[in-house]
Every structure is written in structure tokens, then in C-alpha cells.
Design brief:
359 residues, alpha+beta, BirA Bifunctional Protein, domain 2, eight-stranded mixed sheet, 11 helices
């Protein structure tokens, strides 16, 4: 019996080693370890053995079964690797082939404008900061001088989630200002950042969508003042609209996180049904700004007696509409290939200050 076991192990092992593919290997497994397999047949014969014979032959037959299973598994790994290599070889794609012109994609105007803004502010010494879309009440409201009872909360049609186990309600951020808070908490001044990204409010019409894009800027230092803010905005708008000069008008306004707060208008022309920045006698509201409120600095554990700074924010979608002549914000999110083909940008035309921002 022992010799039969040894011979069977040698025979099956040789068959496994000779298996050319996974199908052949599976056939060997079934003929060896299946219900009617050779090893299974030997184990069934243990019922006719005496107790002493079972004690002697049981471990040997189990050992044979384990050995055969291990050899099959090892061979399967080898055959799997060979099959994968064969498939990779047969399914190669020549990436050097020229693209099919009708299948070439374009860059969405929002992505283009975000790249343009980042390029401009990088040239002014700003870093790009990011934060989560899903925020908590502290970063989105409280730290920005908007406590629970503050009427300014009514300015934001907020998307709230259900309360968690602690009773806290997460929300979709209503502006990118929480990124400013996170940066001030995590980083020692001086700080010079912009925070572009998606924001969410329950509003929808030709100039509003439930999800839109904002960019906010923040500068914190020991000697920052309104003159720096004005110069920064002038440099940005001249570069963005690609004009030689802009004339700005600052109007008093109210934002809970800045004091004083201002709306900024840029001089323009509406003649001919188009907006032209940098010329004419009309005014167009373009963004909001102000000096960072001392309560915001205190919430971020910065001493307002030492540090001060300015912040500004504007809608990226609105900037794209003004610069590239789009009149309906909803079209940005319609996924209409015809619209994107008309307004989209070539994928490899990255905006640069030296080479020009737009096409």
C-alpha cells in the first residue's frame, strides 16, 4: 500500500508538471482529488481497513492529498502568470499612433480658467491650497464669525447632512473660505494662498447652480494693508482679462469675515452687446473683498495685534462667462458635446504668463 501511494504521487506530480494550460491542470485535479479521483478512491478504501491499518495509512493518504493540492496550486500560479503575459503581449496598444481628429477631447472652460487663475497668482507668489468639500460647522461658519444665531447664515442656502452619532451635522461647503481657516490654523504667517474649488448652495437659475466654483485669496502678514489688496486685485484682473490697465471701484459692503468689507467693480463697456473690460464708462461688479476680521484671526489662534491681512473671493464660473462670452451658467453642466467643442480648449495649450493665458 505504501508503495502504491508513492507511485501515485510520482505519477500525478509528473502529470501536473506536464500540464500545458489551466484547462489541462483542472482535469488533473478532478481525476486526482475529485469525487471519483484516484486519491479519493484510496481514501474511501480506508473503510475496509482494520483500526491499526487506518491509524497507519490515514496520515499518509492525507499527506498525499495535501501534497497533490499544493503542487496543483503552485502549477496554477505559473500558468496564470504565463496566461497573463500572453494576454498582455497580444493586447498591446501602440500609443504612438496619431489620434483620430473627431475623437480628440477638449478642456472644459472651468478647468481652463482655474489653470489661468493659478498661473497668475503663482507669478504673484501665492500657493494653491485645497480642503474637503464636506465640512463641519466650525470651519464653514463659526470660525468665520458666523455663529449659530448670526443672520448671515441666511445668506447661504446650505446643504446639510443628517446628524451623526454625536449630533453633529456635516454640510457641503458653501464657500471655499474654510480652506482659509484650515490654512491659518495649520500654518504660521506669512500666508499667501488662493483656494479654488467646488462650492454648494441650494440655488438654480441662469446665473446660479447648486454646485459652482469659487476662488478665494488670503494674505496674512504683519504689515498688510488695503493698498496691497488693491494692487493685488489690479494685477490679477489685468493679467486675467489680458488688458493693459483696469480701473477699479471699491464700494462699502458687508461680509462677517472681513472688516472693512467691499464689493469691487471694474470699469467696462457694454457696447455692441458684449462686455469689454478696461474700457468704456460702465461698471461691472466682479468680486468681494476686505481686511480679515480680527475675530477670524482669534478663532485661528493668531494675535490680531500682531497680524492682519486681506481676503477676496469671486466665482470662477462668472469669470469664465465674462471672459469668453457665455450667457447661461447652466450650460457649463449640461455635458453637451457641441457646447464643449465650441467653447473648449485644446488639451495641450496650457496657460502661461509668457505665452498667453487664453487661445
Amino acid at each position: 500500500m505504501e508503495q502504491d501511494i508513492a507511485n501515485l504521487e510520482t505519477e500525478i506530480t509528473a502529470e501536473i508538471a506536464a500540464a500545458a494550460d489551466l484547462a489541462a491542470l483542472e482535469g488533473i485535479r478532478v481525476s486526482s482529488l475529485g469525487k471519483k479521483g484516484r486519491v479519493t478512491g484510496l481514501m474511501k478504501g480506508m473503510g475496509k481497513m482494520t483500526p491499526d491499518e487506518r491509524r497507519e495509512m490515514g496520515p499518509k493518504l492525507n499527506g498525499l492529498k495535501v501534497t497533490i493540492a499544493a503542487v496543483i496550486a503552485a502549477r496554477r500560479d505559473v500558468l496564470d502568470g504565463e496566461a497573463l503575459n500572453a494576454r498582455l503581449t497580444s493586447e498591446t496598444l501602440d500609443m504612438s499612433l496619431p489620434p483620430v481628429p473627431r475623437a480628440m477631447g477638449t478642456v472644459h472652460p472651468i478647468s481652463q480658467v482655474m489653470d489661468e487663475i493659478a498661473e497668475i497668482f503663482a507669478s504673484l507668489g501665492f500657493d494653491v491650497a485645497e480642503g474637503p468639500d464636506l465640512e463641519d460647522d466650525f470651519h464653514n461658519f463659526t470660525a468665520l464669525n458666523i455663529p449659530p444665531e448670526h443672520p448671515a447664515r441666511q445668506m447661504h442656502d446650505t446643504f446639510y447632512l443628517r446628524p451623526d452619532a454625536n449630533g453633529e451635522r456635516k454640510l457641503l461647503r458653501t464657500h471655499t473660505s474654510p480652506v482659509q481657516i484650515r490654512t491659518m490654523i495649520a500654518q504660521e504667517p506669512p500666508i499667501r494662498i488662493i483656494a479654488p474649488g467646488r462650492t454648494y448652495r441650494s440655488d438654480s437659475d441662469a446665473t446660479h447652480t447648486p454646485m459652482f466654483h469659487q476662488v478665494e485669496g488670503l494674505v496674512i502678514d504683519k504689515s498688510t494693508h488695503l493698498g496691497h489688496l488693491k494692487g493685488c486685485l489690479e494685477a490679477f484682473l489685468k493679467a486675467f482679462f489680458e488688458v493693459d490697465a483696469v480701473t477699479l471701484r471699491f464700494r462699502p459692503s458687508y461680509f462677517p469675515f472681513t472688516e472693512p468689507s467691499m464689493e469691487v467693480d471694474v470699469k467696462c463697456s457694454f457696447k455692441g452687446g458684449t462686455v469689454k473690460i478696461g474700457e468704456g464708462d460702465d461698471w461691472l461688479e466682479i468680486l468681494g473683498c476686505g481686511m480679515v476680521n480680527r475675530k477670524v484671526l482669534e478663532a485661528c489662534e493668531l494675535d490680531p495685534e500682531i497680524y492682519q491681512g486681506f481676503a477676496f473671493g469671486c466665482g470662477i464660473d462668472r469669470l469664465a462667462m465674462l471672459k469668453y462670452g457665455m450667457n447661461d451658467l447652466r450650460a457649463f453642466f449640461d455635458a453637451d458635446g457641441r457646447w464643449l467643442k465650441h467653447y473648449g480648449f485644446k488639451a495641450f495649450d496650457a496657460p502661461t504668463i509668457a505665452g498667453g493665458l487664453s487661445r
